[in-house]
Amino acid sequence: MSDEILKSIYEITKKFEDPSTKQVFDENNKKISVLVENGNVNISLIIEPNKKNDYFNVISGLKSKISNIPNINSVNIALTSEKQPNQSRKYTIDCEHIIAVASGKGGVGKSTFAVNIATSLSLLGKKVGLLDADIYGPSIPRMMGLSEKPKTSENKKLIPLEKHNIKCMSIGFLIDPDTPTIWRGPMVIKALEQMFNGVEWGTLDYLIIDLPPGTGDAQLSLAQNTKLTGSIIVSTPQDVALIDARKGINMFKKVNVPILGLVENMSYFICDNCEQKHHIFLSGGAKKEAENFNIRFLGELPLDKNLCIDSDRGKPVNIGNKNSSTSELFKKIAIDINNIVTS
Ligand code: ADP
């Protein structure tokens, strides 16, 4: 008896179309489920929460048609919403674009890139935050010229330190630098959560995250707990660095984090005397690697002693040496990144 009623109900539902997906509500449509018990019909439709007004006609049409089937006592139709994938994300922040800067190995200029790209985006008029998650050697405070500790707000959140118009927070403020690295791994997940949920970031256009090198806890934890817009991989031209960069690319692909592009740092050196570009290491390695992986190549940055000097004195290059060619290169990459994420 119920089977017959069920069949008659589906004869009716398949004449109705889902206003969102434009698919008919037949037996194969996973957005509808029908339960019949003692002549009482319970239908649930899975919809997007903000679209419920679109379903008024479907509900009244289904109700009046199904009520006319013989032996039906009542028809109840409920709208439910599917759990959104990001509902399980634990790190919350009011930020339009969260970008993780990563590298396969240490010392390739990942933090230098993070600092200078944050400053370049800020110079484009964006509200920028810089989060230093490099547990092995948090260097953002030094590179941004920050030595004080963040204060706590009335609602017990940390107030990020502000420098060069950028809000900065470092894992160095939360983890004792003398703690052995072996203990920091498990701590990093807790500390990362605190750096999102326990910090007064306000509203940001960009949050740039300086990740620890490699493919460890911080990367996975971020991929799982926040909605990353994408990652940028920094490498130097040598094969050893590129092999590690490849591991980083594969890891982000596995956890479904888009890769915005690959940058080659310390690509060449411009000689003070002859003003020629010298490719001290190999040339074009990262570009080729990007092509192999079908990811964007964001550009080559030179080995520039002023970049190193500026970093040591806490000044991003486009503040310390704002008319230099290196500063222009960072600005160009920032414009490209902004175009990529907003297109
Ligand atoms: P990572 O974050 O990958 O460990 P850093 O950004 O801390 O690397 O850079 C390591 C060192 O190399 C720092 O002293 C930094 O100033 C220097 N450095 C980075 N990139 C350049 C560059 N393009 N030219 C000159 N020095 C650089």
Structural features, described:
The protein has 343 residues and is α/β, with parallel strands linked by helices. It has 2 domains: 2-80, Fe-S cluster assembly (FSCA) (GMP Synthetase, Chain A, domain 3, 2-Layer Sandwich), CATH 3.30.300.130; 95-342, P-loop containing nucleotide triphosphate hydrolases (Rossmann fold), CATH 3.40.50. Helix content is 36%, strand content 21%. The protein is built from 11 helices and 13 strands. Helix 3 (110-123) crosses helix 11, helix 5 (181-197) runs parallel beside helix 6 and helix 7 runs parallel beside helix 8. The mean pLDDT is 88. Bound molecules: adenosine-5'-diphosphate (ADP). Adenosine-5'-diphosphate binds at residues 103, 106-112, 139, 265-266, 301, 303-304, 307-308, 311.
Give keywords.
alpha/beta, eight-stranded mixed β-sheet, 21% strand, 343 residues, binds adenosine-5'-diphosphate, Rossmann fold, GMP Synthetase, Chain A, domain 3, three-stranded mixed β-sheet
| CATH T-level topology of the largest domain | Rossmann fold
* Quaternary structure of the protein: single chain
Kindly report how far apart the N and C termini lie.
56 Å
Low-confidence parts: none
How would you classify the helix and strand content by structural class? alpha/beta
Radius of gyration, in angstroms, nearest whole number: 27 Å
What's the CATH H-level superfamily name of the largest domain?
P-loop containing nucleotide triphosphate hydrolases
Q: Number of helix segments?
A: 11
The ligands bound in this entry are: adenosine-5'-diphosphate
Helix content: 25-40%
Q: What is the overall pLDDT average? A: 88
Total strands: 13
> Approximately how much beta-strand content do the residues carry?
15-25%
Order of helical and strand elements: HEEHEEHEHEEHEHEHEEEHEHHH
Task: Please identify the top-level CATH class of the largest domain.
Answer: Alpha Beta
Largest sheet: 8 strands, mixed
Write out the strand line-up for the largest beta sheet, numbering strands in chain order.
Answer: 6-7-5-8-4-9-10-13
